[in-house]
Amino acid sequence: MSVFAIVLIVIVAFFAGMEGILDEFQFHQPLVACTLIGLVTGHLEAGIILGGTLQMMALGWANIGAAVAPDAALASVASAILMVIALNGGADQGEAITTAIAVAVPLSVAGLFLTMIVRTLAIPVVHAQDAAAAKGNFAAIEAWQIAAICMQGIRIAIPAAALCFIPDKAVMGALNMMPAWLNEGMTIGGGMVAAVGYAMVINMMATNEVWPFFALGFCVAAISELTLIALGVIGISLALIYLGLKEAAKAGAGAAGSGDPLGDILDDYE
Amino acid sequence: MAENKVTLSKKDRMSVAWRHQFLQGSWNYERMQNGGWCYSIIPAIKKLYPNKDDQIAALKRHMEFYNTHPYVSAPVMGVTLALEEDRANGAPVDDAAIQGVKVGMMGPLAGVGDPAFWFTLRPLLGALGASLAMEGNIVGPILFFVLWNLIRMAFIWYTQEFGYKLGTSITKDLSGGLMGKITEGASILGMFVIGGLVQRWVSISFAPVVSRVEQSDGAFIDWTAIADTAGQGGQGVADAIHSALSQYASLGSTGLEQIKVTTLQANLDSLIPGLAAVCVTLLCCWLLKKKVSPIVIIIGMFAVGIVGHLVGLL
């Protein structure tokens, strides 16, 4: 890889690391991070495909409260770099992407530990901010905040820079050593991994009241003519209808009193 | 004091909203988002309190524990700005009132933000972008990035303004059932979409063959006849292709071979397409409830994939 490409990769990695904690612009999502690394290394198409595939696996990964999910930032950046090295070494695009996906999962765990370390390192940072606040020093509070963000950026930038210097021969050697059954088996496993993310989401949202909507979505999605946008529209409509009906039922029950329309008619019948 | 009322200009509020995007930068295990919150509110403190002692007091009270979803933090900021403005103008707003509003709002709002953004909007936009990207289409990532940031920026600006204009009366609005409805609506949409995504994107395919049935003549393409026609060369080859394709169109994929092979997967799919996927997902839900780490489950799935493939199950 050229020095120029490596510098660009490190910049992308830095942004991904920052966003891994900020969660605003979404530079850490595989769809964005892998595409950018593909772009700066001249393997745009492979980067987009890798990003899309990893994104599908990572859809439900989210930081809730103090809990941390597998880290999408390191997984997407590092796997994209390895894919680029393999492609530069002459690997087949499909094979390079499959392997990159397989290494992404252990990397997401490594990223998780790194982010926990940085979040602990941030404790002295806020103590420094406390001290600055006690002196009314605005600039120092701002500087420490920016330093903390940079610390998160460096969390990904350093591993990324290190990976760039792995010779392509080593990556190709590892690729060639990998037997077909291992590769195929990991592809099969990768197909199931998305279920973990969805399960995390389901566990957060599920109540007895909303389970039927899960079943509806599952059955309706089998109609392959429906795009995801169509599914979204159906989902929004269902939510609006359901909430509207629930409201109406509450209002009706308050007015009629008995909550039994047939009973009311019979009572009024003379 | 009354004649010199200090107010935050639109520019001040925009500056706070911009900084608020870096709320989680110094996220720490001690007081979580406190540093980012203090960083965000600095422009307002500078404007409202010319006196150094007042500034120090304000900075200190905004270094207290704080943690919520980073986007729905915007209306909390709006209300806090309104309170600080009242206080600077002499209203009796004490530290406890400000901290009380922040803590009182952050919990319920996080309860709305997580399902709405992390569990509904991001999976939806992410899946939309990813499904395009998997075919190598650059529109996928661009669509995701642009739509997400447009929605996010519009949300944080307008909800901060909303909170600022309403001041503390927002707490009444929020407890008036609206929050509950938003949470429930987002959960319904989220569950519906997740149901669809499980069907489409969790792939599991069982390889074992359940049955081999020898099909009767006419139920499969007679390849020897096709070969004879093709053997005549020239027009014969074209005729052979035509014949094979038209038979295939009427017989379907089972007409390709004399022996009809039915895999376990085909049987499952004829019950409901994606049945295996939903079972795997529900199994994950159960395992997660049993406090099994998601990382362990993911590694387990790779192991199952490899072993299953070796024994010919998958």
What does this structure look like?
Chain A: It is a multi-pass membrane protein. Chain A: It is found in: Cell membrane. Chain A: This is PTS mannose/fructose/sorbose transporter subunit IIC. The complex is a heterodimer of chains A (270) and B (314). In chain A, 80% of the residues lie in helices and 0% in strands. Chain A has 270 residues and is mostly helical. In chain A, α1 packs across α6 and α2 runs antiparallel to α3. The termini of chain A are far apart. Chain B has 314 residues and is mainly alpha-helical. In chain B, 69% of the residues lie in helices and 4% in strands. Chain B contains 12 helices and 2 strands; from the N terminus they run αααααααβααβααα. Chain B has a two-stranded antiparallel sheet with strand order 1-2. The longest helix of chain B is centred in the middle third of the chain and has 39 residues. Chains A and B meet through α1, α2, α3, α5 and α6 of A and α2, α3, α5, α6 and α7 of B.
Q: Give the uncertain stretches of chain B in residue-range form.
A: none
Binned, the helix content of chain B reads: 55-70%
Give the mean pLDDT of chain A. 86
For the largest beta sheet of chain B, what order do the strands appear in spatially? 1-2
Radius of gyration of chain A: 25 Å
Order of helices and strands of chain A: HHHHHHHHHHH
Largest sheet of chain B: 2 strands, antiparallel
Shape of chain B: elongated
